[in-house]
Amino acid sequence: DTGVSQDPRHKITKRGQNVTFRCDPISEHNRLYWYRQTLGQGPEFLTYFQNEAQLEKSRLLSDRFSAERPKGSFSTLEIQRTEQGDSAMYLCASSFRGSGELFFGEGSRLTVL
Amino acid sequence: GESVGLHLPTLSVQEGDNSIINCAYSNSASDYFIWYKQESGKGPQFIIDIRSNMDKRQGQRVTVLLNKTVKHLSLQIAATQPGDSAVYFCAEKGYGGSQGNLIFGKGTKLSVKP
Question: Which residues on adjacent β-strands are paired with residue B65?
Answer without folding.
Answer: B56, B74
